[in-house]
Amino acid sequence: MSVEDTDVVIVGGGMAGTAAAAYLSANGLSVVLLEKQESYTDIVRGEWFAPWGMQEAQRLGVDEAIAFGGGWEIREWTQWDEVVAPDEAETVDMTHFVPGVGGPLGFPHHTVCEAMAEQAADSGAKVVMGAQRCEVTAGREPSVRYQLDGEPHEVRARMIIGATGRGGRVGRQIGVSMRTAVHHWGGGVRVEGLDDWPMDVQAMGTEGEKNFMVFPQGDGRARLYINFPTHNKHRYRGAGGVERFLADFELDSLPDGGKSVYAAAKPIGPLKVWPSMTLRPEQSIVAEGAVLVGDEAGNADTVLGTGLSCALRDVRVVCDILLSESDWSPEAFEPYLTEREARMKRLVFGASIIAKLQCEFGPEATERRRRARKLMAENPAAQVLGLLNMVPPEQVPEFGFSEFFAERLFRETA
């Protein structure tokens, strides 16, 4: 077995893992990054950075890699819905919420990860693609054993960063279990051919039993998502699933009935469906010799769209501790735990409100949305949780996270 020593070993080469590897290696630490894929492919992940997430990318120095990997600025957000005519849908300018950032970015996840992994390697990190069967040992002498081309390897480090996403492969090995809650299901596919869709406008809306989203990526490409009720979770499985998925964008609430999407879209990646889960860790995400970041540390319902932004915040906070402290004991990460707990409390609460408004279906839910839109038009304060998609969670007014606010919002829409 080959054995090597390093400061930090990162398990998981997604957005969080590659960002951490690039940032730490650029600042003088030795890093080994382990990724199970032999090469980056489209496995359908989140592909949207909120403006506050791009601010974190700038602080980590990976914003240029994101642009090189296909990052595309989206300037406007239109909220379509079956309760309003398409030409009456509200449009929000998203470019002015975070100074020096502009609007959010849509991008192909796999090509951005590849660009960030290349940046990490150029900064001195060792990037191992195709690392299989990672066995994590935390404690005073942290190490990770893995298989590469059938041969065993071991990395001994001062710290292990777990960044394997919702699969939680590192978390489970250090004893972290998750409470899970599923509100609805979702599916996504990447397409091209949307030449008549304005590439600076993202869409979100609800019609029938579908909450639909269009996130442009430039040059007629976009990631399409649909959230749908749990009882309908098999709708897009099996033969013809992609065709059924695209046909479901024939929507009266979209301009031209959605023809610029469903009739023009040509899939350029796989279709995947998943339960939209909220994950809450039941034990500490910091152990001696190991720390979890990104979805592996817990997440909010994906309807909020802040998972990747949250992951980069995790990376920045954790890595700044590693770079500023000689003591990497669990106590050193107390600021991370405190900040993340407060942040996730807000994100989980906000996501639950948005899911109730946008991802519940039927006559009662439709009337709730109708009244909510009217209330928000009359009282902009009722839109406060929409800021979570734009500004850092700690900058959103506190009243939006109170049970009183939620009770008042839904009472007014009842």
Automatic annotation (TrEMBL):
Keywords, sorted A to Z: NAD, Oxidoreductase
Organism: Saccharomonospora cyanea NA-134
Stored InterPro entries: FAD-bd (IPR002938), FAD/NAD-bd_sf (IPR036188), PheA/TfdB_FAD_monoxygenase (IPR050631)
Any matching Pfam family: FAD_binding_3
Name of this protein: 2-polyprenyl-6-methoxyphenol hydroxylase-like oxidoreductase
GO molecular function: FAD binding; oxidoreductase activity
SUPFAM superfamilies: FAD/NAD(P)-binding domain (SSF51905)
Residues in FAD-binding domain copies: 5-348
Domain of life, source organism: Bacteria
